[in-house]
Design a protein that fits this description.
It is a single chain. This protein is an all-alpha fold. The chain folds into 2 domains: about 40-110, 5' to 3' exonuclease, C-terminal subdomain (DNA polymerase, domain 1); about 115-185, 5' to 3' exonuclease, C-terminal subdomain (DNA polymerase, domain 1). It contains 11 helices and no strands. Helix 2 (about 40-50) crosses helix 3 (about 60-70), helix 2 runs antiparallel to helix 6 (about 115-120) and helix 6 (about 115-120) crosses helix 7.
Length: about 190
């Protein structure tokens, strides 16, 4: 076989392996690497809306999955900017549930920083660690600027978690979400 064909074989080889049942992305270490995967988005929305998060029980996992599959949201900030037309696309959801969800979304804008931090879905940050971080730094705006060494001084924060926190706040996608939340009345100071 000619060497040129070997190069083309490598360049155009169709990947094989298991695929995500939701978005058909090739799994990497049994995980879907697609951050836009509707299932990942739905679980993030469900975490945001959970009791440990911003306590929006009207938006449960099935509703979050429906929103994600319709591409109405890709992160929690977009929940606060759903138009009436977006809500109408959820035709299998009753008017009472939609009304209650809108009311709960409005109330959630007064959430404690602990709930917000948990809802951000930062690797390694569960509800308990979110509470300790807020107790230590007082507000999310201070946490955003904290050095990894300072983070590691907190019980439950190892080097990996400290890096994950720093990385989360520097990620352009997450910064965009924070701007949307800020625009919708959330305060991080």
């Amino acid at each position: 076989m000619f060497p040129v064909f070997k190069i083309f074989e490598k360049l155009f080889k169709v990947p094989s392996g298991s695929k995500c049942s939701e978005c058909q992305s090739l799994l990497k270490d049994s995980e879907c690497p697609n951050m836009d995967c509707p299932l990942k988005v739905a679980y993030w929305i469900a975490r945001w809306c959970s009791q440990a998060g911003l306590n929006i029980p009207a938006i449960d996992l099935p509703l979050a999955k429906r929103m994600a599959r319709l591409h109405l949201v890709i992160h929690p900030g977009e929940l606060y900017e759903l138009s009436e037309g977006d809500w109408q696309r959820l035709d299998d959801v009753t008017g009472a549930v939609k009304k209650e969800a809108k009311r709960q979304l409005e109330e959630s804008k007064n959430a404690e920083h602990t709930a917000l931090l948990y809802g951000f879905r930062i690797d390694g940050v569960d509800a308990d660690l979110a509470k300790r971080l807020v107790e230590t730094f007082g507000r999310i705006s201070r946490l955003r600027e904290t050095k990894a060494e300072q983070l590691q001084a907190i019980k439950g924060v190892d080097e990996c978690v400290a890096v994950a926190i720093r990385k989360w706040f520097r990620d352009s996608f997450n910064r965009k979400m924070l701007k949307i939340l800020d625009r919708n009345g959330f305060r991080f100071d």
